[in-house]
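---------- Forwarded message ----------

FYI, see the Isoaspartyl peptidase/L-asparaginase record below. Original note from H. follows.
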Amino acid sequence: MKPVIVVHGGAGRIFKEREEGSRTGVVRAALRGYGILKEGGSALDAVEEAVRSMEDDPHFNAGCGSVLNEKGEVEMDAIIMDGKNLDSGAVSAIKCIANPIKLARLVMEKTKHMLLTDRGAHLFAQAMGIPETPGEKLITERSRERWKNNLEPDSNPQEFQKDLGTVGAVAIDSEGNVACATSTGGLSNKLTGRVGDTACIGSGGYADNHSGATSTTGHGESIMKVVLARLILYHMEQGMSPEMAADTALDYMKTRVGGLGGVIVVDNSGEWAARFSTKQMSWATVKDDQVHYGIYAGERHTKSVDEALASESEGF
């Protein structure tokens, strides 16, 4: 089986001055994940590494760079899932952790549970020896600025929600196992304790070797209403291609609940798709040693892995 990885850096509106950083960030994440797959590593390790790379990149709304809740704090959600046995781990409303995806994986592997939240997740992180990152360190100037703007009496937080930067990855490894991972800081100025689709299995992501894997991004409440990730795999089980399944599910979400979003998909034969109903979504994929990436509908750049690695070391 030839390994494939697909990543997204969030669907929504990506401001002009942030486009380059978003493109660079998703390509870097895809290359990191692909590096693991190329060495014979697992899809699970690859998606975790790709997402961790984007959590560490302030261009994305996950880890460092997460948006702030109504109180001006970072609260993050993440999920990871193994298509081999349907094992999954997730965390929600967690603070002071640099890489929520790492903690989600530990929930999957070191507990009998699938989802830990808030204080319980924090205690578990301490027990696992995960260092605490001061909340301030995760806050970027941009997130603070946006939070302040949304507090203005005449502001419209809905307008800012169009810039929704969840991050995610899906992969299939040389053994034919699939996996997904998704991580987010959620919605800007959300109520304290709000948990969106990301941490919910079947909404923020789903992976099953029998069909494939998907990671979603967009308006969380809408995604949860239609259980978007599982819906896409259901369409694939009925015989649709990844692209057709993604488009059908996104169209349903738009017409049924008025929700916009984006998805990345890989099926169990290595076919992939990156589709979105929002204006933009940063995405990248690596297959057959070729990197493909884009942000706008219809935009698709291609370069070889060697070329991409060389330009990465030169800073793109």
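H. also flagged this: The mean pLDDT is 93.
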